[in-house]
Write a structure and sequence with these properties.
The protein is of the alpha/beta class. The protein is 37% helix and 17% strand. The protein has 23 helices and 20 strands. Helix 17 links the parallel strand 15 and strand 16. Its EC number is 2.2.1.6. This is Acetolactate synthase. It comes from Actinoallomurus oryzae. It holds the Pfam family TPP_enzyme_M. Pathway: Amino-acid biosynthesis; L-valine biosynthesis; L-valine from pyruvate: step 1/4; Amino-acid biosynthesis; L-isoleucine biosynthesis; L-isoleucine from 2-oxobutanoate: step 1/4.
Amino acid sequence: MTERMTGAQALVRALEQVGVDTVFGIPGGAILPAYDPLFDSRQVRHVLVRHEQGAGHAAQGYAQATGKVGVCMATSGPGATNLVTPIADAYMDSVPIVAITGQVASGAIGTDAFQEADIGGITMPITKHNFLVTDPADIGRTIAEAFHIASTGRPGPVLVDIAKDALQKEVDFVWPQPMQLPGYRPAIRPHAKQIREAARLLTTAKRPVLYVGGGVIKARAADELRTLAELTGAPVVTTLMAKGALPDSHPLHMGMPGMHGSVGAVGALQQSDLLVALGARFDDRVTGRIDTFAPDAKVVHADIDPAEISKNRHADVPIVGDCRDVLTDLITAVRNEHAAGRKGDHEDWWRQLSAWRETYPLGYETPADGSLAPQQVIQRIGQIAGPDALYVAGVGQHQMWTAQFIGYERPGAFINSGGLGTMGFAVPAAMGVKQGRPDTTVWAIDGDGCFQMTNQELATCAIEGIPIKVAVINNGNLGMIRQWQTLFYNERYSNSDLQSRRIPDFVRLAEAYGCVGLRCDSAAEVDATINKAMEINDVPVVIDFIVHHDAMVWPMVAAGTSNDDIKIARDLAPDWGNDD
């Protein structure tokens, strides 16, 4: 296929050819030539956001909900720099997005022209790859390469920065385009010898744990994970990014590990003699003080990114490969071990694990003054909306409670900003999720602090017909900051009180944005309010849940301390020695 057209038309045609159906963006001078042919596209829907950060997070949500590459678009200078946070977020959480930005004309690059910024240089450390296109003949090939890089190997963000004159000039558009990526060869297939050694360790360990990270969900390997877990009888812990990779209700599931993980999951890791890490990166929120993490455990570490292997914890058996292929081969190897009469005995291990699980379940206290417990709100949202809904969280206390008190039975049902911890993620990400999965109920569970960073995208949702449901867990404070100030700063609450019980009025704000606004401040009204929101499916709904300002997230491992020092409440620790 060869046709004469402008570079801007070539960009839109290339997006159509790689299967794009949605672009989240906002126009500006340098990218404006691309918006003219976009107006005529019958395949690509453009969602006009209110801030470029919202476009980036929406592209992330769309990608995680659909498994496709999310696309956002912005102009040069401030438009492009407003994408930096979502690009960094996507990089940390391995989310495939392509960010397309306009750039000043090629002859003006480097002259400090109006709205010029070196977005390639700015984002180089936080993109999987980025391109600067100054020749219109390169546009089609670059788009093909960008989508290939973003979606293969370890997924991640790719930036395509296109000079304005490249969009305006004419070119012979040719498709398909041969890609020129001689140095890009992601390792997919794991090494057979390493797989056999991992299977041997799994069948001889006394206290194994399958430590499951977000890479298992990215690899669409939940079925294989379940098969391996049931085959070996090993306990499974799923990180914040892996919720639902094994159903929370599964008897082998010990919960979420880490700073706010369950006692059972943290104890399982700490006292294991073998960790099989699958698509996980041993980050500090899981390990606590790294030199005290799982001190007696050998480590099998499987990851598609060789840079992660032994980065934070030495791997006794390193396996580079796609998690689905790793698990498939590992299942076969374990079955071969079983056929040879080698099968692990974990009865004593499970006796210990079950004792922890039964003695220290997740729970919460109802506030003595009769005010609303945030945990109850979130738990009831999960129970009423059910396991088929998709849940998107911002960052902070509400994020941890959303991870703890909603039961996730399917992979990908929980979407949040894990690695970067971006306040303001929930509303625009939920918008992208709902755009990608329009027939699915989507709840954004947000804090009153996070909500005020990006709630302008409610206007986008109302105008574009994207009916998300937003639960604002309103404690009037930056909740996690207040918790740390309570525990570590002698209750000196410096600049953490938002006074958001009064300013703004979230119900009236929601109505001003064209949404339905509801408020709930009593336990007796929680179910009725959630059910009312569930009945409204033609416009976005925002519920202002007024909750107790001093509710805390427990359990907790304080930053920089050992997981052995986990607290189940203030000044109250598990009794590890009496659980045998």
